[in-house]
């Protein structure tokens, strides 16, 4: 009898089981831009994503469900740190564990590649993202004044990866 992988799992965990992660390819650009544009007041332009594809320090990954791109991330792995540049999930798929899955993937790969810390900036008004980052061990360590194009401040959040494998 096949094992039911959904037994005893939360809704978010069951939803995340249906999602696969894979490297971003150029044909994902329109779907990623759609998510980017509904997610951020100052969205990345197409060339930003394309430039990151050629950056040897960058990693771009999409989350896919039933052949549809529903989320993505972009990060840099430089020396012993991973810096998370951009993470978003389509509004129709938020609060289902997809953002957590993407972030856990980033952190796991960073650990495997020798990173000791992770950092990111987040809008001070983005309380859902801040809460998610805190559940993953990120702590606010500084404020970057007028960081975003519209003048909004950002929190700099970091976490050590020394205990990530055990968390």
Specify the CATH homologous superfamily.
Gcn5-related N-acetyltransferase (GNAT)
> What proportion of the residues is helical, as a percent range?
25-40%
Counting structural domains, the number is 1
The strand line-up of the biggest sheet is: 1-2-3-4-5-7-6
Distance between the termini: 32 Å
CATH class group: Alpha Beta
Secondary structural class: alpha+beta
Task: Compute the number of helices.
Answer: 5
Quick summary:
This protein has 167 residues and is an alpha+beta fold. It is 30% helix and 31% strand.
Descriptive keywords:
167 residues; alpha+beta; Aminopeptidase; seven-stranded mixed beta sheet; 5 helices; 30% helix; disordered N terminus
List the SSEs and their pairings.
Blueprint: H1 11-17, E1 20-23, H2 29-39, H3 46-53, E2 58-65, E3 68-78, E4 81-89, H4 98-112, E5 117-123, H5 127-135, E6 139-144, E7 154-160
Parallel strand pairs: 4-5
Antiparallel strand pairs: 1-2, 2-3, 3-4, 5-7, 6-7
Description:
- This protein is an alpha+beta fold.
- The chain has one domain: Aminopeptidase (3-Layer(aba) Sandwich), CATH 3.40.630.
- It has helices at 11-17, 29-39, 46-53, 98-112, 127-135; strands at 20-23, 58-65, 68-78, 81-89, 117-123, 139-144, 154-160.
- The protein has a 7-stranded mixed beta sheet with strand order 1-2-3-4-5-7-6, sandwiched between helices.
- A hairpin with a 2-residue loop joins strand 2 (58-65) and strand 3 (68-78).
- The radius of gyration is 16 Å and the shape is globular.
- Residues 1-9 have low confidence and may be disordered.
């Amino acid at each position: 009898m096949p094992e039911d992988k959904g037994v005893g799992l939360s809704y978010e965990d069951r939803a995340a089981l249906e999602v696969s992660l894979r490297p971003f390819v150029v044909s994902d650009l329109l779907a990623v831009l759609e998510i980017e544009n509904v997610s951020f007041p100052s969205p990345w332009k197409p060339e930003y994503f394309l430039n990151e594809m050629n950056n040897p320090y960058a990693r771009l990954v999409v989350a896919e469900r039933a052949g549809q791109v529903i989320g993505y991330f972009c990060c840099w792995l430089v020396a012993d740190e991973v810096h998370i540049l951009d993470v978003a999930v389509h509004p129709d798929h938020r609060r289902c564990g997809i953002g957590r899955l993407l972030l856990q993937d980033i952190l796991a790969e960073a650990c495997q590649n020798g990173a000791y810390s992770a950092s990111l900036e987040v809008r001070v008004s983005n309380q859902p993202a801040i809460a998610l980052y805190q559940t993953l061990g990120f702590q606010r360590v500084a404020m970057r004044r007028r960081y975003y194009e519209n003048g909004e401040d950002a929190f700099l959040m970091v976490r050590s990866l020394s205990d990530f494998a055990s968390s």
